[in-house]
Amino acid sequence: MSVRSLIGIGLCALLSLLGGNTVFGQEPASAPASTQTVQERLDSLEKKVEAPSLWKTLGFKASGFLDVAYTQNFNNPNTNLNQLHIFDTNANAFMPHLAQLMLERPADAGGSGMDRAGFRTRLNFGTDARVTRARTNFQPGTSNNELDFQELYAEYIVPVGNGLKIQAGKINTLIGYEVINSFENPNFSRSFMFGLGQAFTTTGVRLTYTFNPIVTASMGVINGWDNVDDNNKSKSFEWLLALTPHERFGVSFYGSYGAEQSNSQGAAPAVTGADPTAKRTVAGSILTFKATDQDTIILEPYYANEGNASTVSTSHNGRWNGLAGYLLHDFTEQWSARFRGEIFEDAGGTRTCTGGVNFAGGANTCVGSPVGGAAGAGGIAQTLWENTFTLQYKPFPSLITRTEFRYDKSDKNVFLYGSRPANNQETLSFQVVYLF
């Protein structure tokens, strides 16, 4: 027998003694951990330990959206502005309206301790932020800064009764049906009533209490309309009473009262915009009726009055009021049609054609009104009408597309047709919104 054969027989015997199961009668040994790949070990650990992240433990939620649109103005105004529009201001142009990031921790009334505390912050980037920021006084007199905290507030639900919610900070207003974020409205463009005659945000303290499933009430003490820095020594009050007597019908009553004009600082009280004693009174309501599973009807009557606010009327009293109606029809979950009809009266010329940076850098200027003038200086008393038709298609829950035709008309020649005055304006808009 050769040496090579003897070595082979010896190795086989050694392996049999070390690992042979039949020799010692042992169960098969498990594979050493070192033979697992890194990914296999990670998968094994994840299956054994499913610890929630700190983010989920604290209850944080993050979301946002992107909003881009194109608007064609058939009047082709030589200013390249859609007259008396507030957010969709640029004519015949694309606009990156908004990129919004929202971080929140909603307060939980059913929880205890820290569960009852929460917050919300909405950070806006884009051309719409010019409007919301210009009206906040973060930087008074600046309209071209495209960064704005739309909302920034903390909240706590006091364990009293059904839970008393207390919110403090900068919050979307209680006034009006429409809001800043376009996709949360039935239409792409905003109404005259919202864009020109209502507050966007308020800064202060707000209390909300739900008495039962039918009645909810809110009341707040605020700096005023769209003021982060108070422009006078007085505070304003806001309120909302929401009633839902039936699952298909609801009605809300809202309003505000207080001094909204800046300190006069030695100016004569007759000078509008500089009388801190003048009071602004607002009252309105929102009626919602779900006629069928596919059809919803909304009506909003609105009234506002402010002393010493007009340079047009002999009494210097400013009054503006309106009525807006909405009809929403859902063909399917993806397709829907929306119609808005509105009449808005600016009897004192205090809200329309006033110019100034407070209205998106001049989009609230009209034929015969000052360009870049102070808000309330030399406005035009008029009555406006508008009809808006919107077709919405949502191919996915996170993607909204809209096509909108809007017709504006006034009893004065405040619009532009090229370079000449006109009493009407027609626009066609295309919008895409991506939610995340």
Order of helices and strands: HHHHEEEHEEHEEEEEEEEEEEEE
CATH class: Mainly Beta
Second rung of CATH, namely the architecture: Beta Barrel
Low-confidence regions: 3-34, 137-141, 266-271, 357-362, 371-377
Distance between the termini: 79 Å
Give the total of domains: 1
- CATH topology: the name is Porin
Number of strand segments? 18
Structure report:
The structure is a single chain. This protein has 436 residues and is mostly beta strands. The protein has one domain (58-435): Porin, CATH 2.40.160.10. It contains six helices and 18 strands. It has helices at 3-19, 21-24, 38-48, 54-58, 128-134, 192-197; strands at residues 61-73, 93-105, 117-125, 147-158, 164-172, 201-210, 215-225, 236-246, 249-259, 279-290, 295-306, 318-330, 335-346, 382-396, 399-410, 415-417, 420-422, 424-435. The strands form two sheets. The chain has a 16-stranded antiparallel beta barrel. A hairpin with a 4-residue loop joins strand 10 (279-290) and strand 11 (295-306). The protein starts with a helix and ends with a strand. The model is unreliable at 3-34, 137-141, 266-271, 357-362 and 371-377 (pLDDT under 50).
